[in-house]
Amino acid sequence: MATTGTGTGTTNFTAFYNTWSDQLHQLLRQLCSAPKPPTTQDHIHHLNHLVNKLLSHYSEYYRVKAAAVERDVLDIFAAPWASSLEKSLHWIAGWRPTTVFHLVYTESSILFESHIVDILRGVRTGDLGDLSPSQFRRVSELQCETVKEENAITDELSEWQHSVSDLMGACTDVDQMIGRLARVVQKADDLRLKTLKRMADLLTPQQAVEFFIAAAELQFGIREWGKNQDRQRDFYPSS
């Protein structure tokens, strides 16, 4: 049963998040130094290995977060480890799953334009700017599915929020309501992880590595900018 706690669980999760983020930095360096494009079978195996490491790293994050949600879902919503900017971008205690598609389309467009001359000459780059028609179709289909699931979870949260007036009733089971909220967060996190895995499956090893580089750089860029803004407002402790 999800409960509201003393904050100890959130302190533990904050420590975990900081360590997890440091490890993601290390993985990002490995991704950036990987051979792109791969020219041997060993290179392809190495890229696949890195993609699997990234997916395992994200899976571990959501495994630990699920336990934290079960302990105190309200503290997870408060997200004391995040900057004000990060919190303003949150959808149900995390990033929107459909952000994945905006990122892929943006990176694909940037790389396509940078290689336009080579592409017109028939030279294949193999990167995100070189998505095949079949890949574009499958990405579009996955996007439609994800939008439907995201909207359904949003509606579920809205129903929970509308039911908050029930808290004023004498017979209201507060723990039951908090449990409902925890289940909404779990569904949102499940969709986030599922979207990452399914996108990785649609891409080649090189493209998947480039996608995870872009995702990590976006995450770290938003975090650093947000922390700097908070420091200027004396909201964020200097470190």
TrEMBL record:
GO terms for biological process: DNA-templated transcription. InterPro entries: Seed_Dev/Stress_Resp_Reg, TGA_domain. GO terms for molecular function: sequence-specific DNA binding. Pfam families: DOG1 (PF14144). Residues 10-232 form the DOG1 domain. This is DOG1 domain-containing protein. The lineage of its organism: Eukaryota, Viridiplantae, Streptophyta, Embryophyta, Tracheophyta.
